[in-house]
Design a protein that fits this description.
This protein is an alpha+beta fold and 217 residues long. It is 39% helix and 35% strand. It has a four-stranded antiparallel sheet, covered by helices on one side.
Length: 217
């Protein structure tokens, strides 16, 4: 049975190993502005087969908030592909060693630029062997502590992706509000200009009825 001092020492050792130990996830989060008729690709390298690759993207601004995407493997084989998608969140297994390409295409737009927020993660679950010796000298793996840490990591990842989702919703709603405001402004401006033009035209027509030509009887 562990006492309070052993538990405190164990927790500190786990925390230090978790912070300074080898990372199990490599992530790349970027925001890229894709011009009209442009195609952009980003690459990662998988040095071992069986790694989990996460791919998330969301169109923050531009046009109808849609984009074409494709994920290609080292042999130029298509792993994921979609057209006119607003956002996506995928996880697949990199079964081959080599370079994986993540491409975005804005060919459907003739003038609209797209602002794309995306993240690429390469995960390889390496569970560290934290060992605690009993009084009798037997070793016991801390499986419960490990599982708790991995559950916390998964929960934090889910929270981060949820925040990205709400950020995307906020940006899209903000863009919709701005577009509606611009339409209302120009509609009101044109309506006012039409009313003023009609009033001036009516004054001109009525005034012409009372004009008398010079030399008339």
């Amino acid at each position: 049975m562990m006492n309070g001092r052993d538990v405190t020492t164990l927790f500190i050792a786990l925390l230090v190993a978790f912070l300074v130990g080898p990372k199990a996830t490599n992530a790349t989060a970027l925001t890229y502005e894709l011009a009209a008729n442009e195609e952009a690709c980003f690459y990662i390298w998988a040095d071992k087969p069986g790694k989990k690759v996460g791919f998330y993207f969301a169109v923050q601004q531009g046009g109808a908030f849609d984009i074409d995407y494709e994920v290609k493997g080292p042999q130029e084989d298509s792993i994921l592909k979609g057209e006119k998608e607003r956002q996506g969140d995928f996880v697949f297994t990199a079964n081959q060693v080599g370079e994986y390409a993540f491409c975005f295409s804005n060919d459907m737009s003739t003038f609209a630029e797209k602002l794309v927020d995306f993240e690429i993660t390469v995960e390889h679950e390496v569970r560290p062997d934290f060992v605690l010796k009993k009084d009798g000298g037997n070793d016991q793996q801390l499986t419960e502590m490990e599982e708790t840490l991995f559950r916390l990591s998964g929960t934090l990842t889910h929270i981060a992706r949820t925040q990205k989702y709400f950020r995307t919703r906020e940006n899209r709603n903000s863009a919709t509000v701005e577009s509606t405001e611009n339409r209302i402004f120009w509609f009101a401006f044109l309506e006012s200009a039409a009313i003023v033009s009609m009033a001036c035209l009516q004054v001109f027509v009525i005034k012409s009825f009372f004009n008398v030509k010079k030399g008339g009887v």
